[in-house]
Design brief:
Layout (H helix, E strand, L loop, with lengths): L6 E5 L4 E5 L3 E6 L7 E3 L10 E6 L4 E6 L6 E7 L2 E12 L2 E22 L2 H4 L4 E4 L5 E5 L2 E6 L5 E3 L2 E9 L3 E10 L10 H16 L9 H13 L31 E2 L3 H10 L3 H15 L9 E2 L10 E2 L13 E2 L10 H15 L6 H17 L18 H21 L5 H18 L1 E2 L4 E2 L14 H4 L8 H14 E2 L2 E2 L17 E2 H13 L3 H13 L10 E3 L4 E3 L5 H15 L4 H6 L7
């Protein structure tokens, strides 16, 4: 099976696909990120759905994105010649397309195309039929795929297959379109015009990024990835386009990430607005406000792409999982957890939106006031924590710090923007939380904060202490906490979230290093003026990106492989913000760390 980093992302801002170096599209949900998958080979085998276009003989592959786009060009070199496959996705009205152009570069190359359509995550065999114009349609209930190509196809054992030769200078186009089966058949599509328009569209967007010195290429690719994971209409940004890619190979830490986490809100806004993407930031804020509207007692940690609340989790037993890492899950039961940190992230996100000049909305502040009323009643309760543990609730220190941030952000909102609220009450709660965390969440013997009240170990989320302004970077407790994390969680140059063997998450031990945490450590080094270490760690992390600049959620330093869902928005957000921290240009960590707050 291919490694996770062997895949590249293409998408149309409504859904996305993963294309392997070997020429196979092994993951595709249509019409939306969280729709059922038509291709699920990445979680099983080719009979669970895939679309292969590749040379028949052995080949060596190189690939790249067209600059400033999500259009992928993959070149296969063989003993008889070379061929390039250009892959991209588009959409129009209520239709979605995956397009593939095969171009001969040198010599003559014998090619094979294999298309296995398996809707409903590989569980359904559709009805295939040939249309009068030569196209082939695949119908399953309300959904339909239509394949358009001049290459002759045969259907064998529920598989559409073609063998053809490609000569230098010759091209063959393949278009796979999704539409509702109860609507009229869409007309054929001209790939050439669509390709040109798609390239222009992406490059126009990328051109708004002004650059950030030597890290510009990595930041631009991360921004393009974030945009690809954002829904064009709702503004929601999914954590990843995949489900159940394992955090530990062969393990059970397999989750569905095709949803939108509130936790990403403030960091996403930083990343977008610093990079000159005000419109996207505003669209994301609109999604955020719609999602959280209602009773604050019913606030969830995550929502669907359009703000849906029901994300019931279930297992798909017919899929063995990536490298037999089961179970495969869709939906996410963590949506029902209590995580106090989301209040801080939402409140700060909306403070940032005002500070960066997004238009004021009176309804937004009314929602925030209700959230704070509820938080005032529950902040002192245990919760499930940032890492969504399933081993029982604790008084997680990070959660308390982010509750502190919620009230601090509200106080700053009144001070800076003339909004109205019970500031004195908020100050009292904020200072109470601060004092309690410094008393119960700090181990004076280790000179370090700990994972939860009474814990012996640390948590990488504690790296956010100076980044959100809870304590200044020059406070000895910050340096002590960084050292404790280095001693306990820094492994093979990367940072673990926490020690899984302590049983706090209720799951089997073992996982890769969480990449966002390692970026946070680089930002802490910058705040501590350890700039050489900051740049060295950041540049090492960049080497862990795959050949087209993409990062998964985690990295396994022993297997030297990316693990977890891919590509991961949180990893790319952390990359962008850390690049700004290191460049010290509109640095988010420095900006947040200079807030006027009570540092007890």
């Amino acid at each position: 099976m291919a490694k996770i980093e062997d895949y590249a992302l293409i998408g149309n801002r409504e859904t996305a696909a993963l294309v392997c170096k070997n020429g196979s599209v092994d993951w595709l949900c249509m019409p939306r990120f969280d729709s059922g998958a038509f291709f699920s080979a990445i979680l099983g085998n080719e009979q669970h759905g895939h679309w292969l276009i590749a040379p028949e003989e052995d080949f060596v592959t190189t690939r790249h994105y067209i600059d400033g786009t999500l259009v992928l060009k993959t070149t296969h070199n063989t003993s008889s010649g070379s061929v390039t496959v250009t892959d991209f996705m588009t959409r129009e009205e209520d239709r979605s397309y995956l397009m593939r152009r095969v171009s001969g570069d040198e010599g003559v190359v014998k090619m094979v195309m294999s298309l296995v359509v398996r809707p409903d995550y590989g569980s359904t065999i559709p009805w295939a039929s040939r249309l009068d114009d030569g196209r082939i349609q695949y119908v399953s209930g309300p959904e339909r795929l239509v394949l358009q190509t001049p290459v002759g196809l045969e259907n064998e054992d529920m598989e559409s297959i073609a063998y053809f030769e490609i000569k230098a200078g010759k091209t063959y186009d393949f278009v796979l379109g999704w539409s509702h089966s109860y609507q009229a058949l869409p007309p054929p599509v001209a790939l050439e015009n669509t390709l040109r328009q798609t390239v222009e569209h992406w490059q126009l967007w990328a051109g708004r990024f002004n650059g950030i010195g030597k890290y510009s290429d990595a930041v631009e690719r991360s921004l393009l990835t974030l945009r690809a994971l954002g829904h064009f209409e709702t503004g929601g940004i999914v954590a990843a386009p995949t489900t159940s890619l394992p955090e530990a190979l062969g393990g059970e830490r397999n989750w569905d990430y095709r949803f939108c986490w509130l936790r990403d809100a403030s960091l996403t806004l930083f990343a977008l607005m610093q990079s000159n993407y005000q419109e996207e930031a505003e669209l994301w804020r609109h999604w955020l406000v719609r999602a959280i509207a209602g009773s604050p007692a019913q606030l969830q940690i995550m929502y669907g792409v359009a703000g849906e609340k029901w994300l019931d989790e279930r297992e798909l037993p017919w899929l063995p999982g990536y490298e037999n890492s089961g179970p495969v899950r869709i939906g996410n039961a963590a949506s029902g957890q209590i995580q106090l940190d989301i209040y801080g992230e939402v409140m700060e996100a909306l403070y940032i939106a005002r500070k960066k000049g997004l238009p004021e909305d009176a309804e937004v502040w009314a929602i925030q006031l209700e959230m704070l009323k509820h938080l005032a009643e529950i902040w002192n309760q245990p919760d499930d924590g940032i890492w969504e543990v399933r081993g029982g609730r604790q008084h997680f220190v990070h959660s308390k710090i982010m509750a502190w941030l919620a009230f601090d952000s509200a106080i700053r909102s009144v001070r800076d923007f003339g909004l109205q609220g019970p500031v004195e009450d908020w100050k009292a709660i904020r200072d109470h939380i601060h004092a309690e965390v410094c008393l119960k969440g700090f181990d004076p013997k280790r000179n370090s904060f700990v994972q939860y009240y009474g814990a012996n170990g640390v948590d990488a989320a504690l790296l956010l202490i100076p980044m959100v302004g809870f304590l200044p970077a020059d406070d000895p407790r910050v340096a002590g906490t960084v050292k404790a994390i280095e001693d306990e969680l820094l492994q093979d140059g990367l940072v673990l979230r926490y020690r899984t063997e302590n049983g706090v998450d209720g799951l089997a031990r073992g996982e890769g290093a969480f990449l966002a945490c390692s970026f946070w450590l680089a930002s802490n080094y910058a705040l501590l003026n350890r700039m050489d270490e900051a740049h060295n760690l950041f540049e090492y992390l960049l080497t862990l990106s795959n050949d087209v600049g993409l990062l998964a959620e985690e990295y396994d330093p022993h297997a030297k492989r990316q693990v977890g869902n891919f590509p991961q928005a949180f990893s790319h957000i952390a990359l962008i913000n850390t690049a700004y921290n290191l460049a010290q240009v509109q640095a988010p960590a420095a900006e947040r760390a200079t807030v006027e707050a009570a540092h007890g």
